[in-house]
Write a sequence for this structure.
């Protein structure tokens, strides 16, 4: 087996310093619809300049390098314990190299561990044994600003006129975008899980951020709802950084999870414009990144 | 909206603040100090509410802050800082969400005589009142543009309360031409309040629309 630690450090470096191309293209596409000279337009220009500088200088796009969320799909025969060790070691070394900010703070003592390692919950690592012969590791760096504006609704919710149906989902999503204003670092991206329980809802809503932006929802009703939520969220006029403008949400992903008869959760996760996700694939000795 | 950026240097004189209004673009130079959640609470407990007695060491830090912050600017930021043999280097330094400091900010503006607060997402009415009463403004940096802002940081002059950890320590930074937007001014105007109210009206019509 190849030594995974150096390639994992590269996965972290790439994630932190280089926006995925589909995300950068989506940010680029906002320019034409914001008025030249307006704070919204100037903001988008700065965001794109920042992406270029971060990539060129190999420094973090955003100082909040977020919660590192790893999703590991491994072929039969790999030991989770060894994969975990490699990931934790890579996180620690990438932090020492300033690709990640030391972000793990003990909530009782207030002490920052300095290494980005905390407890079994920090960083987040999801494991799944795959039927494939390749090892695939996805990394999402999700900053605290956008994490703080995520919301979970339990329908029906009279305060937003939302019943237990797809129109209720739409209302919950729009309310979440309104409540976020610019604080989630708009223009952002939504991951919405309908159903599940409180835990699975958040988990599934965040896993949607591993999808490419052009992913097509196989359920036509959900595909239509995704389009409508994006369209209407942009009608709120919140705009880049909440300065007012046409671009608030650039893409909505929705998934549906089986729920209990008693529960109908709508979980809305918000990803900031600094949408940092990268994938590493290991095939034998060959390692590729996307 | 004016396209031209207004150069400002810390310490900022009062008339320069009165001349600013929401929508202005500013290029800020001089010395600024990062302060976020832990620093605000630390200052509040020891020098405003006085619920915790300040030690002699706390007093020294406070006096240093006073020299930097009279007519000065606080930056809501937890930077990424690399340390080598010759000192500290900031590689990423975008703003953090300001509203978490709303309980403390107004008092801290008065405590030091701040002329400005840099952050993102805007602040509430208590802070807006303090800005108006103390002739100060809220400067909005573009969230996430950490690499670009770091390019405008010339050097790290000092770090106070390093034991708070890298994000929460108070970094004293010499900056040049940091690009900022005035989103809350000294005349009681807030872009955040305006956008929120307009979006609220739009939300209500979308919620009633099946």
């Amino acid at each position: 087996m190849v030594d995974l630690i150096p390639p994992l450090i590269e996965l972290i470096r790439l994630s932190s310093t280089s926006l995925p191309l589909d995300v950068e293209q989506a940010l680029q596409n906002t320019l034409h619809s914001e008025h030249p000279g307006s704070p919204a337009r100037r903001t988008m220009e700065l965001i794109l300049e920042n992406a270029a500088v971060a990539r060129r200088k190999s420094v973090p796009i955003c100082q909040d390098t977020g919660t590192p969320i790893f999703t590991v799909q491994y072929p039969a025969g790999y030991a989770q314990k060894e994969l975990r060790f490699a990931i934790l070691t890579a996180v620690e070394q990438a932090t020492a190299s300033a690709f990640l900010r030391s972000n793990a703070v003990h909530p009782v003592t207030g002490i920052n561990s300095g290494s980005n390692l905390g407890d079994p919950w920090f960083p987040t690592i999801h494991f799944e044994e795959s039927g494939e012969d390749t090892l695939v590791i996805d990394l999402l760096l999700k900053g605290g600003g956008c994490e703080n504006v995520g919301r979970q609704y339990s329908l029906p919710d009279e305060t937003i006129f939302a019943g237990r149906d797809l129109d209720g989902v739409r209302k919950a999503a729009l309310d979440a975008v309104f409540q976020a204003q610019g604080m989630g670092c708009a223009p952002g991206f939504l991951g919405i899980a309908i159903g599940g329980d409180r835990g699975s809802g958040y988990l599934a809503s965040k896993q949607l951020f591993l999808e490419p932006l052009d992913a097509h929802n196989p359920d036509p009703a959900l595909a239509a709802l995704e389009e409508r939520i994006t369209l209407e969220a942009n009608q709120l006029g919140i705009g880049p950084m909440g300065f007012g403008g046409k671009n608030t949400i650039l893409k909505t992903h929705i998934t549906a999870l089986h729920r209990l008869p008693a529960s109908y959760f709508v979980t809305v996760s918000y990803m900031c414009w600094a949408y940092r996700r990268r994938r590493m694939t290991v095939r034998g000795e060959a390692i590729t990144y996307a | 909206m004016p396209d031209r950026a207004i150069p400002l240097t810390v310490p900022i004189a009062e008339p320069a603040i009165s001349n600013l209004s929401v929508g202005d673009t500013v290029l800020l130079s001089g010395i600024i100090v990062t302060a976020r959640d832990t620093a605000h609470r630390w200052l509040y407990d020891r020098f405003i509410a006085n619920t915790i007695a300040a030690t002699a060491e706390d007093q020294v830090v406070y006096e240093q802050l006073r020299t930097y912050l009279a007519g000065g600017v606080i930056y809501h930021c937890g930077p990424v800082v690399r340390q080598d043999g010759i000192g500290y280097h900031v590689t990423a330094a975008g703003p953090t969400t300001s509203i978490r400091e709303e309980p403390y900010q107004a008092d801290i503006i008065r405590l030091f005589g701040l002329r400005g607060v840099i952050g993102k997402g805007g602040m509430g009415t208590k802070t807006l009142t303090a800005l108006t009463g103390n002739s100060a403004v809220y400067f909005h940096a573009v969230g996430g543009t950490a690499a670009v802002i770091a390019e405008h940081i010339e050097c790290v002059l000092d770090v106070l309360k390093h034991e708070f950890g890298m994000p929460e320590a108070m970094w004293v930074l010499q900056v040049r031409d940091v690009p900022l937007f005035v989103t809350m001014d000294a005349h009681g105007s807030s872009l955040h309040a305006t956008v929120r109210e307009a979006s609220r009206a739009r939300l209500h019509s979308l919620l009633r629309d099946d």
